[in-house]
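Ligand-bound model needed. FE2/S2 (inorganic) cluster.
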Amino acid sequence: MATKALALHQTTVGKKAIMAVTGFIMVGFVIAHMLGNMQVYSANPAAALKAYALLLRSFGGGLWVARLVLLGAVVLHAWAAISLVKQNAAARASRYHVKHDAVTSYAAKTMKYGGFVLLFFILYHLAHLTLHIPVGAPAVADEFAVFERMKAGFEVPWISALYILGNIALAMHLYHGVWSMLQSVGLNHRKYNALRKQAAVAVALVVGVGNISIPVAFMAGIVG
Amino acid sequence: MSQTIKLTLNIWRQAGPNASGQFQKFHRDAVSKDASFLEALDEINEELIQKGEEPIAFDHDCREGICGMCGMVINGMPHGPRTLTTTCQLHMREFKDGAEVWVEPWRATAFPVIKDLAVDRSAFDQIIQAGGYISINTGSPGDANEIPIPKAVADLSMDAATCIGCGACVAACPNASAMLFTSAKATHLGVLPQGQAERLSRARAMVETMETAGFGGCTNHGECEAACPKGISVDYIARLNRDYLKAVVVSQTT
Amino acid sequence: MELHSNAPTGPIETAWDRHRFEMKLVNPANKRKFTVIVVGTGLAGASAAATMGELGYNVKAFCFQDSARRAHSIAAQGGINAAKNYQGDGDSIYRLFYDTVKGGDFRSRERNVYRLAQVSVSIIDQAVAQGVPFAREYGGLLANRSFGGAQVSRTFYARGQTGQQLLLGAYQALARQVGLGQVELHERTEMLELILVDGRARGVITRNLKTGQIDTHTADAVVLATGGYGNVYFLSTNAKGSNGSAAWRAHRKGALFANPCYTQIHPTCLPVHGEGQSKLTLMSESLRNDGRVWVPKNAADVTKRPQDIPEADRDYYLERKYPAFGNLVPRDIAARNAKDVCDEGRGVGYPPEREAVYLDFADAINRLGQHTIEERYGNLFEMYERITDEDPYKTPMKIYPAVHYTMGGLWVDYNLQSNIPGLFVAGEANFSDHGANRLGASALMQGLADGYFVLPYTIGNYLARAGRDLAKTPVAEDHADARSAKAEAEGRLKAFLDNPGSHGPDHFHRRLGKLMWEYVGMARDKAGLQKAIEEIPKLREEFHAKVRVPGSGASFNQTLEKANRVADFMELGELMARDALAREESAGGHFRVEYQTEEGEARRNDDDFAHVAAWEWTGKGNTPTRHVEDLDFEYVKLSQRSYK
Ligand SMILES: Cc1cc2nc3c(=O)[nH]c(=O)nc-3n(C[C@H](O)[C@H](O)[C@H](O)COP(=O)(O)OP(=O)(O)OC[C@H]3O[C@@H](n4cnc5c(N)ncnc54)[C@H](O)[C@@H]3O)c2cc1C
Ligand code: HEM
Ligand code: FES
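Prediction:
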């Protein structure tokens, strides 16, 4: 039938694919980022993290490309999210008086809220540790004193709490997001489908536990 | 003798597509446990008619769970509490004596209410008209056994083809998405050798028509699969996603 | 009135080929100038509408369901026959033809049946190309099974959902034409009247069921593919909406109704559980392959639990009476015997009627293991359990016969044209190919044969020949004959809405159903039929006086739809009784108690009744006229069946 063809970004399937690809980029990033963060547990964390920061800086233009890709991913991801949330709400304009959920998870139902918690958290996190705007923590002058800045922040209980909450939101987002992303781009295979949910749980757990352990460790005095 | 139960039924009444609706309460003292849900409604309706009131409008035809015409949300569950069961196959023994039951129509912007529990699902037909077929004229095909099809492939196609188009997937989906229906239809044809020629263009045309009909997008909750009286799998959604993306991003001809 | 079959003479094998050659063709450029109305989107209607659309005609199609795909054909389970002989077990077109004529108890037209067997092979090719996922063997080729006691495996199937899959194929072909703009599809639209102009069918009056709007659609030819009328009995395996109204409206406009008394009763259905029951569910016939049918020997035992009745007190009556065929006797014999034992007070169904017999799998489970039985019938057992809340692995199923199919229908000639020029009838709505009894898996075949492979030619021939006349008298919506048909329909609906009334249409329909089942059911006799002919008009009068239809005609009003259909059933039921009374023989689905052999088998009377009875409407309150089309049996020798 001769309907006008829609472009990728005009369909929900296309938007979800955009979310999946951008999500994939961000998932890759948070995993790498989390692994990088694990250097707080090395013998001399201050030196290790400083060396890590200097190494990243040495990539020069490359680092900026990566940052732009990430920024682009966040923007596209958030745009698609907002657009889908609106369309989905319009599709169920009249609500059920009684509705029983059979299988969906809390994580799945809260993706849209969790996503915005994440957006807020990302902004805070960038301000705190990338742009060096202390927002509530004592300022640290040395640009590459990553460890000291973390320590200054995580010794403030509400900042630690914020990071913990932000990462719980992240873990939940990944718990639904990782398998959802595979489904959205059509990566399914009868033989391996069960693995998709297992992978999602693994990524969510590893990233969540890894990241959350850091503020906890600082507060508990294990590192610092 | 068949046993009976007491029930309070709250049934959605809505005079027309643009009217505002509300629940009407019916106290039933002796509902036969052997009656189907629709038979219980029949009984209420006969009483309403005798009083000169308008009976509850609801769609149904085969009453065997195959035509896909019946459907209502019962206690928040499309087709009611029993899995893999259409409303017409649901029996009153599924309810506890004295229970309160809420009955609503499929709610979706793409399925406007016609009256009470009857909704307009013609958007589903439009999706098929856009490309949910294999283009072949009567009389043109060769012998049926010319192309062997592995049994497993035929079985997969049949699994998808058992969709009865009732719309419970849309009703169950938090986004009122029609992806389960559309993907089942696309998969039924898309896995068969006969369906290959139009596989990508079909996926694209069906998705685009679905999009413009007012359904939401799939966010992978899986509620559709759980509500489906035929157990259609969300795996087909991934297949359709893939075919659609191939059509739009990769293929040079669609 | 002389009835001409218009079937070609000469050798039967080439009859259809020769006939097709002799037919006139419509010039391709002219096809779009013709409009064809197809009422019904079941297998017959959808396939006809799609094919006519592909050929280039303007097609308008109608169905009362909300989607064309929901036509009652969707419910067919078992399969579709075709003389492919893929199994190499000796099948052939001739054998399918032979089996169908014989199975129909020699009351069908040989030439029609031969053509049906011929085109059956193309149906499978067509369906497979459309993507119908028929069952296959591991090697990838199509699987077949033997069905309904056939000696060869010629039945193609798609799990237990063959009708669904074939209908989806036809529906998708139809949807394609809708998408291309060749077919204008009107769902939730019911035909109320036929428009006749100068004796030709020129259109229909319809009601949009969603809005209540009444419209006039004019055309050059009209096809009725509106299904069977089994719902005259209220309880049947048909869908709730299945009705006889379209055919009956045409009948009242002059179309002859043929063999209305031939009804098929299916032996394995779920029994009636109570007053509120709305329909009967078919359980596949295949169950009789492993289940044993029995009732208690003594009427006193009917209230006992089946497991408490010792082997010695059970009567496996089919095995006892028909040692050769046992539980696998044909449908009508199995059905009638179940009725007999229940009439003797040995039925085991729900009180008070207790109409049911046991279908017991205990022996099969012992012999083959529960696993095998589960594999064979798992889904059926589950369905049974869902409906009855009883576990057939542990306790025997209860089954009882139910009305399933109507062989009768509007009279058509070899071209599937009724006696009204331009009115064609296809599928279960016509009377054509099954004679007095339809074989399992042959209805789907007939519907698709009619729609895909017969009508597109014969309607073309009609249009080519009548084209000039049709063009000379264009019929617009405001043509006087269209206006009067519309007024007639509107008047009928208004009468229902204005009636003060006391009960809904179902109330009267149930009572009609009981009368029909009692007197025009599985076994009929003169006194009972006369009683029905007396009682039905009384009930009809009461219905018209007392039926209540709340709401308005200008909106969705399901009570109005029903009342309108029940009104026609009230007239059709009487005609069925008259036909049954006039047919003083037993044949296929028509069993007259007076005409049976010593062993209780149906006894045909070929000397006096080897004909089609086609009834003419003679006006309200008048006795209809019975016309006759004689049947010749040149190829299949008349013989009496025996299953002893
Ligand atoms: C439970 C069951 C199982 C069966 N199993 C088998 C089987 O295994 N094999 C087999 O060969 N046969 C089987 N049959 C028989 C077979 O299914 C039917 O005979 C056949 O499908 C009829 O097809 P049809 O196209 O003539 O009519 P239908 O499919 O009944 O279609 C009728 C159409 O007409 C429309 N219509 C009716 N009245 C009006 C009106 N007034 N205005 C507008 N539209 C109207 C309806 O909307 C519908 O679209 C079975 C039947 C039943 C009940
Ligand atoms: C910028 C803030 C963010 C917002 C507003 C946001 C919002 C959303 C929303 C609404 C969804 C769709 C949920 C659904 O389908 O149910 C989603 C999916 C997803 N998100 Fe985010 N998210 C954000 C950040 C992130 C981050 C930081 C990551 C990765 C670490 C991420 C990874 C994913 C993934 C993988 C998906 C699944 C995509 C798919 O199903 O195709 N998101 N997000
Ligand atoms: S009425 Fe046909 S599926 Fe329920």
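Chain A touches chain C through one residue (CB under 8 Å).
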